[in-house]
Design a protein that fits this description.
By secondary structure, the protein is mainly beta. The protein is built from four helices and 20 strands. The chain has a domain of 185 residues. A hairpin with a 3-residue loop joins β14 and β15. The two termini are 37 Å apart.
Length: 380
């Protein structure tokens, strides 16, 4: 449902509300495929616009029951977000300049409890917030030179305060040609699952044969190898992903019959969030046998595990807080990549009913740090 109310002097109030119901979709995640059994998505939105002022507010919610296809268990999601944002803009210097500014505040709540009360996706219910302030200055320095500067400051309960600047200059070389230079820095925070995931990554692993073979050395002690859980766990110490970009662009109108655009860009991307991997989260140290056992016995246990388990499985083996063994896969920040590329487009207007267009893009990248290029590939 949508309601639009028009007031005097161009003021407009818009109210919207709705709901979506979905079931049956299957989507891919870091822990394998998930099937949606039932999902409800209600939402509401408000916007009051006066031309030079905007007040926006929205709320949405997701209430879903899902099934993990690899592990077979039921997963529940009860998540909601709301945000209020204020924007203002004004012109000055006889319309040569414009200032835009504003602020926003967002609240987020997530719970994955089953009807029994047990969490199914994250370790515990979460309630977080984020606040942001932003400003932008556009100014016509000369009739042929236009500048823009902008900055955004984000203060989020889950990450350190971030400042994201942006600047650009556009120079009109002639009436039909222009040259532009742009710089910006941005970030992307880890999502809730990458931080707080706590879910089976598969069925428990039976290592009782290894424990039985070691029994003469254990003196009756139990290693808990009969059913070792395999878990996918978040990393609360993840940093944000970062990108710093530069771009040089050229546009030209050619004889009122063609439009040419070309650009060169260069970016540095850092601290990617990995897929689920073994042995990458310092909160889950490599497995160590019980300290009550003699050192020689501990070494024999580790040697047996190393000999009988695939390397990646042995790397994932760690301990829970109660000292029992488990296999943990988690996330980490890694990598530094430099990318550069060119893009160009030519659009022709030979006739009002015909418009052929030609375009080309080339991307080159170089992995500077982290894992090899085989694990860091650009997508399309």
């Amino acid at each position: 449902m949508r309601l639009v109310k028009y007031f005097e002097r161009g003021r407009v109030l818009t109210l919207e509300a709705g709901n979506a119901s979905m079931e049956g979709q299957v989507f891919q995640t870091g822990i394998g495929r998930i099937r949606v059994l039932d999902s409800k998505r209600p939402y509401a939105r408000l916007n009051f616009n006066t031309g030079g002022f905007n007040l926006l507010a929205w709320w949405d919610k997701r209430d879903a029951e899902q099934r993990s296809l690899p592990a077979g268990g039921l997963l529940y999601v009860d998540a909601s977000k709301w945000e209020v944002e204020i924007q203002g803009n004004t012109r000055f210097a006889r319309e040569r300049g414009r200032v835009i500014g504003g602020a926003s505040y967002r609240g987020m709540e997530v719970d994955s409890a089953a009807p029994s009360g047990q969490q199914t996706i994250i370790a515990a219910p979460r309630s977080d917030h984020s606040a942001a302030a932003f400003a932008q200055l556009d100014y016509e320095i000369t009739p042929f030179l236009h500048g823009l500067m902008a900055v955004r400051v984000d203060d989020v309960s889950l990450i350190d305060r971030r400042v994201s600047p942006k600047a650009s200059l556009v120079n009109r070389l002639t009436r039909d040609q222009s040259l532009g230079l742009k710089f910006d820095r941005a970030f992307q925070p880890p999502n809730y699952l990458e931080r707080f995931l706590a879910i089976p990554a598969g069925r428990p692993v039976d290592l009782s044969a290894i424990e039985s073979a070691l029994a003469p050395l254990l003196g009756g002690a139990s290693l808990g190898f009969a059913s070792v859980p395999a878990l996918a766990l978040g990393n609360q110490q993840l940093d944000v992903e970062k990108v710093t970009s530069y771009e040089l662009g050229y546009t030209a109108v050619i004889g009122a019959r063609a439009l040419l655009g070309a650009s060169y860009f260069r970016s540095r991307l850092e601290d990617f969030v990995s897929e689920l991997r073994p042995g990458v989260n310092p909160a889950y140290a490599p497995y160590r046998p019980p300290a009550t056992l003699p050192v020689a016995v501990q070494q024999a246990i580790l040697a047996a595990l190393r000999q009988n388990l695939p390397p990646s499985v042995f790397l994932a083996m760690t301990k829970r807080s109660d000292g029992s063994p488990m296999f943990a896969h988690s996330y980490t920040n890694f990598g530094k990549v430099d990318t550069q590329g060119v893009e160009w487009e030519l659009v022709l207007y030979p006739h009002m009913d015909v418009r052929p267009a030609f375009a080309y893009a080339c991307l080159d990248y170089q992995v500077k740090e982290g894992v090899g290029a085989a694990e860091l590939l650009p997508n399309s």
